[in-house]
Amino acid sequence: MANQKNNEQSIIELCLASLHALPGCRFEFSPAAAGSDHAGHLELSGPWGACRYQAQVVTRLTPLAAQLAIHQAQATRDFPLLLLADFVSERLAGQLRSHGIAYLDTVGNASLHEGGLLVEVSGRKRKARPPRTSRGFQPSGLRLIHLLLRKPEALNWNYRRLAKEAGLALGAVGPVLKELEERGFSVDDAGGKRRLRNRLDLFRRWEIGYLERLRPKLLVEHCRPAADIGLGALTDLIRRQNLQGQIQIGGELGAALVLEGVKPQQAVLHLNGDPLAIMLRLRLVPDPDGEVILLKALGTRSDGERLALADPLLLHAELMGIGSTREELAEQLFERYLSRHFQSPTLGGSAERSK
């Protein structure tokens, strides 16, 4: 198994090496403390002045990873964000520059605009394939990480229980847990119990992996409601058909159940039951452009006779996957139902319905 920690350190070193080409530039990189949600701070100085960046390593800069970085950069930071990436394509470079995000990559592409510093290097081609994605962020590992983010106490369960709850093979558990330990996400506390550390960073990495790798494997069908049924009527129809225990409601429709003033344009239904039977009972018609997306559920959730919502992790990920039009909605959801849980022992339960 590739050691992701070594990959990230290699990316940092190669990105910083390109700074030697800047005339009169002096730099110092200070690694962040263990458990931080960033890689460290980079101080640059020269005839033009001095500046300081907060550095974030991205081993594989995809369009979604760039979008999430732009979203994160809008959060309050003491210093401007600097992405250190294996490779930044021309298209993604333009996207980052348009949002004022600085970057360096391992082949020498760069964009630095801070104070009197102005550096623009583009057009350099990738010299080698990017570091391989670690096992923890392949589909089976993402299932387990989702469980651990929801229930951090599960880190102390036995392998058999973890495999059963996460829905993966028993042999896949050990390598994923080992990787989480190597990357500093799993540590021993004073009492000898395992606990998650830096959960916010782990969540951000999981969210990208979920949208890019796991979600496509969970996809069942794109559908649209029958002509005489609107999207908003789905919740009542789920109740009338007694399907509460077989469906978790997510996407914009799920967000509309917990946030005020949301007019959903799409829905994600996470299914525990037979997809065909559920489609028939909800009068859903297969349509590649349909606004109702059916996914296999990650685990089971049931609120008895009440509607079951997808957990806040999935709600946020699905909203971010829609794109920039729903980023503000995702931020509201994060602030109300997620932010406090990254400092608390558990992420159990679901968001409470506002209506």
Automatic annotation (TrEMBL):
InterPro entries referenced in this protein's UniProt entry, alphabetically = AbiEi_2
What is the name of this protein?
A: Transcriptional regulator, AbiEi antitoxin, Type IV TA system
What Pfam families does this protein map onto? AbiEi_2 (PF09952)
